[in-house]
Amino acid sequence: MNNKQSDNPILATRLILSICFGYGLLMLCRTVVGVAGPAMLADPTLNIDTATFGAILGWGTAGNLMGKVTTGALADKIGGSKIFISAIFFAAIATFIFGTLSTNSAFFVLYFLTVFAKAAGWPSIANIIRASFSENRHGRIWGFIATSSRISSVATTLLASSLLLIFSWRGMFFSAGILTLLIAAVLIKTLKEPEKGLQDSVQPADADNPTSLDDEVSAPHPLQTLKTREAIGHFIRSPRFWLISLGVSALAVLFEFQVFLPIYLSETYDLAPAYAGIASSTFSLGCLVAVFSGGFIYDKLTKKSLIYALGLSLTLAVASLLLLRVLGDQGSTGALELTLTVLLIFLFGFSISPAYYIPMSVFSISFGGRHCGLLVGLIDAIAYFGAMSFDFIGGAVANKEGGWQDFILILIVTSVLATIIMTTFLYLDYRHSRQGNA
After folding, report:
1. Contact by Cβ (8 Å): 98, 111
2. Is 118 exposed, middle or buried (CB count within 10 Å of its CB: 0-12, 13-18, 19+)?
3. Which residue from 4, 50, 92, 292 has the least number of CB within 10 angstroms?
4. Residues 1, 16, 382, CA angle at the centre, nearest 5°?
5. Sign of the torsion formed by the C-alpha atoms of 92, 94, 98 and 104
6. How far, in Å, CA of 24 to CA of 87, rounded?
7. 380 CB-side CA count, 13 A
8. CA distance 357 to 229
9. Neighbours of 434 (CB within 10 A)
């Protein structure tokens, strides 16, 4: 084995870890605003109330939606690594400047730009993975990166909270921005992957598969010669695009339950806020376990087996929500009911995560080809729109007397729809693979 090939496993590991660290930095730049919220509201030099702070977050969501589409197209044209690094530097600078601001309109603009940059993460990562690894490794790589994203959301919240213990809210933004800039400077080198070298080092998972990697690389992708506008037209004419978009949108709504969990547990079981937050963390724990193991399992299953595996997983999600509603109907708030609720929350997070993270990411690379960043951005934008809509609707429903039962009923209906849509998508994807279509 020559030196270049022997170094490839190390280079591949370095690349994946660099992606994880880079995405964690983007998460930090987004998280600091939420952590700083109470301190900003208490700052007498600012004219901010809860409604204004909600508007800041709303402008951030708008930046996310806009960023998912535009940065995905840029990643396809310029390259995933360049856009990924540029997004980290842009988010770091915007975070630093945010700490100097005093007017509401400036807060709106800077947070829009910060989350716009953060939105580039997933589409640019899709391009890096497509260019650097063979298709039979995509599932496990996405599983690892999805696991890292779940860990980083917790870690960056703890880091931002720790900074706020030491500095003012402005000092927290300065520290987060400088830290991000310093680490991003290191990532410039580690994210310069030898794309062809990595491709050459990855062997097919099935040694008996007669299709060689050279055949896979040399076969032209159907979208290879299409321009961005033509690629979008190709996407919207595909039933699979709409199914995966609607399916991920429904799953994004289910994921929004985690935002409401502390309040749900606090009001349903009279828990103190700190204990409600600890209990709600079982959702994230279930997600971590699922996406870490799910990526490896995904690569081992055939497309036909995936229909049953993910269909069963989503059916468990429906069952966990039904049981949560039954527990709520009983009106008992004892230790046993609380324990069962926490276990069901873990099961719910465990059940929906593989279907949410992996199929869309793997499909986007295989179906989108060199336009995979654009495809990821379009699907994510639709998903975030669904989640944003549910935030308003779900909050209004839960705020009513006995509203949590209706809230969970909405989730049950959404979960059933997600199961139907995702299994239909997986079936069509299996049928297309049998026909040899893109």
Report:
1. yes
2. buried
3. 50
4. 135
5. negative
6. 12
7. 31
8. 26
9. 10
The predicted pLDDT at position 120 comes to 87
What integer pLDDT is reported at residue 197 of this predicted model? 43
Please give, one letter per residue, the 3-state secondary structure of the chain.
CCHHHHHHHHHHHHHHHHHHHHHHHHHHHHHHHHHHHHHHHHCCCCCCCHHHHHHHHHHHHHHHHHHHHHHHHHHHHHCHHHHHHHHHHHHHHHHHHHCCCCCHHHHHHHHHHHHHHHCCHHHHHHHHHHHHCCHHHHHHHHHHHHHHHHHHHHHHHHHHHHHHHHCCHHHHHHHHHHHHHHHHHHHHHHCCCCHHHHHHHCCCCCCCCCCCHHHHHHCCCCCCCCCHHHHHHHHHCCHHHHHHHHHHHHHHHHHCHHHHHHHHHHHHHCCCHHHHHHHHHHHHHHHHHHHHHHHHHHHHCCHHHHHHHHHHHHHHHHHHHHHHHHHHHHCCCCHHHHHHHHHHHHHHHHHHHHHHHHHHHHHHHHHHHHHHHHHHHHHHHHHHHHHHHHHHHHHHHHCCCCHHHHHHHHHHHHHHHHHHHHHHHHHHHHHHHHHCCC
C-alpha span between 56 and 51 (Å, rounded): 9
Can you say whether the dihedral through the CA atoms of 377, 187, 181, 19 is positive or negative? positive
Q: What sign results for the dihedral spanned by CA atoms 314, 122, 65, 400?
A: positive
- Distance of alpha carbon 222 from the chain centroid: 27
Distance between CA 309 and CA 286 in Å, rounded? 17
Write the CB contacts of 406 (distance below 8 Å, at least 6 apart in sequence): 397, 398, 400
Residues 6+ apart with CB under 8 A from 349: 258, 282, 283, 284, 285, 286, 287, 290
pLDDT at 139: 67
pLDDT along the chain (438 residues), means of 10: 47 84 88 74 80 72 79 78 90 93 90 89 82 73 73 73 81 91 87 50 40 46 70 85 92 82 78 66 80 69 85 94 84 78 92 83 78 78 80 74 87 95 90 68
**All domains of the chain in start order, with CATH:** 8-193 (1.20.1250.20), 226-435 (1.20.1250.20)
Q: Tell me, what amino acid is at 7?
A: D
